[in-house]
Amino acid sequence: MTTLATPGSHKASLPDAGQAIAELRGLSKTYYKPDGSIMVEALRSVDMAIPRGQYLAIMGASGSGKSTLMNVLGCLDRPTGGKYLVAGRDVGGMDDEELSVFRGQTIGFVFQAFNLIPQLTVEGNVEVPLFYQQIHKAERRRRALAALDTVGLADRTTHRPSELSGGQQQRVAIARALVTEPLILMADEPTGNLDTATGDAVLATFERLHAKGMTIIMVTHDDEIAKRCQRIVRLRDGLIESDTLPS
To answer: Is the model's pLDDT at 97 over the cut of 70?
Structure first.
């Protein structure tokens, strides 16, 4: 097993190649009404293993459970049954504070909206997650510059978001997700606000990251985008309808 560490943090065990970096075991998520009766079973006894370094697409119609699955995989929500393990750790056994710290150090998020802070420079936006992790200023800057170089924006560090194109802003958001050196990168419709050509450029960035070994989980409604991933999981009524490896 390889070990990753960030300054002042716990150490997270990183599975060797081929082992599951995330695993769902009989996982369910039920939402209840105020009177305690069941409102909806969003996920129903889902079993799934995600190997380290896999590029996975999650698909499904509205109400299929894909957003709930994304929230559970990203440690934004807790299951009501079963287990969710990340790098061998049972997320369900963590208290709220421990889960928040673990999520910040383990999961990187990229959303459809770029969610950049307009008053900050590109470098400042990328540094934000490290500020909350109380990383020293010099180390924050070093890692921010390295992340921006990874997404091809090393020459835009002093620009403001308003001075960038939509595709560049999304690449800044990807750099911000990478700066914490996460085990898993999660993307929720990351090209939804972009035109086709710009979206292709952003997807090319994800593909380069995957080629370097990054585990990526992407929610998308677009079959053509999903076909660019290694694996496609389709949900229906809280169950896995299909789990395929596109040719």
So the answer is: yes
